[in-house]
Every structure is written in C-alpha cells, then in structure tokens.
Amino acid sequence: MASCVSRASRSLHSAYRAWKIRAAAVRTRSDAVLLDRLKALTVRDVQGRQQPEILYGRRKMTAWLSRGEFAGVSKHTVDRLMRLEGMNGLVRGRKPRSTVSTGKDSARAPDLLKRNFSAPHPNHSWVTDFTYVPTWGGFVYVAFAIDLYSRAIVGWHASTVKDTPFVEVCLNMALWRRDNAGHTVQPGLIHHSDAGSQYTSIRFTETVALEGLVASIGTVGDAYDNAAAETVMGLYKNEAVAKNSPFITGPLKTLADVEKLTFDWLERGINVNYDLARHYRTWLDQQSATITT
C-alpha cells in the first residue's frame, strides 16, 4: 500500500514539474501578443486621447490588424479577445433626418443619382450635407463634401451660421484641394445634396453652374435620397463628437474647438477608416489606387 502511494506521489510530482517547464501553447502566446496590441489602443496620449481604432467593431478591427503585424488573423479570434477585454466598438444609432426646404413648390434640380451611391471613377459624383455640434457658445455647423467613388471627404467647413456662403466654402475647398493635388475637377461632375434651403438657393445654384458642375437634389422629406452623406454625418457625430470620443480632450466651447476636433478626426480617424463597401480598404487607399489612373 505504501509503495502504491509513493509511486502515485512521484507521478504527481513529475506531472507538476513537466507542466511548470512546458512551453505555453501557440494559441496562448498568439493571444497574448494580440491582447497587448488591443490594450495599447486604450492608452491615452499626452492630450488624453485614446487611439481612434478603439472605435472599431470586430470586422473593422480584423481588417486593421490584418494590415499590420497580424496578417491572416481570424475574425473569430479578434471577436473572442475583444469580448474578453470588454471592447465592443462603436454602436451607431439609426435616426434618419428628413430635409427642411423652403417649400415643396420651389424650383430645384432633379435627383440624378436615384439612390445609386456609386461612381465609376473619382471626381464623377460628390454628395454633400452638414450637421451641427453643440458647444458652450451655441451650435456650430459642419459641412462635408464626399467623393462617391472612394467615400473620401474632399472638402469641409465649420461655421456658426448655416447660410449659403457656409456650404459654398465647403464646395470651394473641395474644388481647390483637388486642383491643388493635380486632379482638377472636369465639367460635368454631379454635385448631389438634399433639398435644404442652402443648396436650393439661387446663389448656390449659380455657383454650381459657374464651376461647371451638374446639380442633383434629392426629394423633400426623404433622408435616404442622400444616404451616403447621411452615413458620413453619422460617423462624424458618433466617432468625433459623441461622449467618450477619443478625439475630444475637453469641453467644446467655441468654433475653434470644433474645427480642431474635425481636423483631428479627418487626420487620425476617417482617413484611415475602413469602408465596408470597398472590402475594408481604407478610403485613402481606394482614392490613391485610382486617382492616378
């Protein structure tokens, strides 16, 4: 009996020593490296901001990791580790906004897109819209112009007044940026917007025509006629402006705060964001791959 107990004891000790010196499993080691990368996203910089990738869900996070040192990483592995760390990504609301127009009978351009938010090449069609950001000093309005081919934001402008000159500056900035980059917009580009009073005004209609663009305006009261622009508005509000945004370092007090916030979002966030419709290529990748063709 004593010898049986002794043999059992030696066997247990041997198993314990083997377990102590055994190398960690491959999955355990790879999980540890990936977890370190995910945890690094939560580390705040000198301005108190987390990395913009902290907003990614499972699919975008997988695409982002695959572009770096984790090529071929499984979406299931990413999902499992994100759940382990309590990382859920950004959850967007669904609150489509309908257009406010000067009147249903006001003359305006036809809807040339018909909800077809695709384009065969850059500078073929742009969509534009604006949203608002509450600050201590009142509302600040931010307008964006988006190229439908790459979903790249080609122009933007912030103002405390939502008048026609406000949206004109956004358009002029987009035109200047393309021209300055050596990709001048050719006559015939479709400029699509909702039926807001700023876009249906005589002044803005003339500006679009003088630039050689073709105006296109969605129907009144239907946010889906400008859904591509609404998507960008939603991303901006949820990623840049929402509570706990990695781009906010303090309360938004003035127009200058919103301008800095928007610039940081464009530089650190949206320009490296992953467009689901483009197989997770970044919007800058998609733009760069074809703007020279």
Automatic annotation (TrEMBL):
<feature type="domain" description="Integrase catalytic">
    <location>
        <begin position="118"/>
        <end position="239"/>
    </location>
</feature>
<dbReference type="InterPro" id="IPR001584">
    <property type="entry name" value="Integrase_cat-core"/>
</dbReference>
<comment type="function">
    <text>Involved in the transposition of the insertion sequence.</text>
</comment>
<dbReference type="InterPro" id="IPR050900">
    <property type="entry name" value="Transposase_IS3/IS150/IS904"/>
</dbReference>
<dbReference type="InterPro" id="IPR025948">
    <property type="entry name" value="HTH-like_dom"/>
</dbReference>
<dbReference type="InterPro" id="IPR048020">
    <property type="entry name" value="Transpos_IS3"/>
</dbReference>
<dbReference type="InterPro" id="IPR036397">
    <property type="entry name" value="RNaseH_sf"/>
</dbReference>
<dbReference type="Pfam" id="PF13276">
    <property type="entry name" value="HTH_21"/>
</dbReference>
<protein>
    <submittedName>
        <fullName>IS3 family transposase</fullName>
    </submittedName>
</protein>
<dbReference type="InterPro" id="IPR012337">
    <property type="entry name" value="RNaseH-like_sf"/>
</dbReference>
<dbReference type="Pfam" id="PF00665">
    <property type="entry name" value="rve"/>
</dbReference>
